[in-house]
Amino acid sequence: MREVVIAEAVRTPVGKRNGGLSTVHPADLSAIVLTALAERTGIDPVIVDDVIWGCVSAVGDQSSNIGRYSVLAAGWPESVPGTTVNRACGSSQQALDFAVQAVMSGQQDVVVAGGVESMSRVPMGAAKGNGMPYGPMALARYNNFEFNQGVGAELIAQKWGFDRAAVDEYAVRSHELAAAAQDAGAFDAQIVPVPTENGKVTADEGIRRGTTAEKLANLKPSFQADGVLHAGNASQISDGAAAILVTTPEKARELGLTPIVRYTGGAVAGSDPVLMLTGPIPATEKVLRKTGLSIGDIGAFEVNEAFAPVPLAWLAETGADLERTNPLGGAIALGHPLGGSGAVLMTRLVHHLRDKGIRYGLQTMCEGGGTANATIVELIA
Q1: Where are the alpha helices (DSSP H) in 49-201?
Q2: Are 111 and 8 a contacting pair, CB within 8 Å?
Q3: Which end of the chain has less neighbouring CB within 10 Å, N or C?
């Protein structure tokens, strides 16, 4: 198997629902990061063997094959193909894994992975419509439990004993870290400004400066009357896109590129679909086992903050260091554009590794239906 590297990773700012990016078609939002990826690397897009694009709600403006239409919107040669992947919230992290597998196997040499979601234009759940995606046989297997991520997150909080104060304090931490990172310019090199009819969007929009546990305590629970979860300690509904260039070290040298990280290992795991969001725990165990690394070897973790109990349960089970986990804030503060989030998190991670000289980084993402991806990358010194 060939060694695989990430040569560049870029993202848009993450926009709030009905915020600065809401007027931009998702194919055009994707085209902006594809164009930036080509410009920053200096590659001719004609050499790209495939574009693998994550997207969850493939209806309306994101219907048919948003991966292919993103390539066309970017003005790339018609010879460059594109496809779309849906592994729920982990769609673009899975897109990266597929890109790596294609290059690692020798079938392809240069692949772009990424994803997009415009939740302002295509609301969450729009693809479901009036359907019942689980079907009666799956529902019967779980005593006709109506699968729901919010309810699952409440069950996680109950199982691990996280009270309202714990989840609210974690949410405050996310906003504080994100604000500090934004102020320090930690996101500047990775973000591609997005021109809109109302001017350029240049920064993540979701950070709530001055958020306190006392303020969050006033918010009503969203899923259970006596629950702990509400809009302030859950991921934000967002718009955004990201793109990652995947190749081999040899091809990178040929193209005059300096890779950022090497792909060390990836894993995907299934878990209880009722709790639904605990998959990052076995996925992390699996990828560590595959790579021969320990949790202590990892210098930075990106654990998607779908709901505050998700990273809290992951921390409790893995023994990972809180200070190394989501050090730049997470989806509670920075947003969660579903199919684009995996690539957004990886972009944040690889830039953070390079900025801080950290050797190993691990990214993991809980996903609807009870699955999760985990990926480890290593900084190239």
Answers
A1: 66-73, 91-105, 135-141, 149-160, 164-183
A2: no
A3: C
pLDDT below 70 — which residues of the chain? none
Q: Residue 87 pairs with which residues in a beta bridge?
A: 89
Task: Establish if 374 belongs to a structural domain.
Answer: yes
Beta partners for residue 166, in sequence order? none
Domain membership of residue 3 (yes or no) is no
DSSP letter (8 states) at residue 75: T
Can you list the positions of beta strands (E) in 202-237? none
Query: What is the domain extent for residue 360?
Result: 265-379
Cα separation, 128 vs 122, in Å, equals 12
Give me the amino acid identity at 303: V
Q: How far apart are CA 203 and CA 163, in angstroms?
A: 33
**119 lies in a domain?**
no
- CA distance linking residue 251 with residue 258, whole number of Å: 10
Active-site residue numbers? Answer: 89, 336, 366
Closest CA to 169 of 110, 221, 104, 214: 214
In a domain, 86, yes or no: no
Q: Which two tokens stand for residue 247?
A: 């190749």
Tokens coding 123? 């609301």
First vs last C-alpha separation in the chain: 22
Find how far residue 212's CA is from the centre of its chain.
Answer: 26
How deeply is 203 buried, as exposed, middle or buried, from its count of CB atoms within 10 A (0-12, 13-18, 19+)?
middle
Number of folded domains that form the chain: 1
Q: pLDDT value at position 82?
A: 98
Give me the pLDDT at residue 231, please: 96
CATH number at residue 355: 3.40.47.10
For residues 265 and 377, give the distance between their C-alpha atoms in angstroms, rounded to a whole number: 7
Three-class DSSP category at 263: strand
pLDDT at 267: 98
Please give the model's pTM, rounded to 2 decimal places. 0.97
Q: Coil, strand or helix: which one is 317?
A: helix
Please give the Cα distance from 364 to 381 (Å, whole number).
23
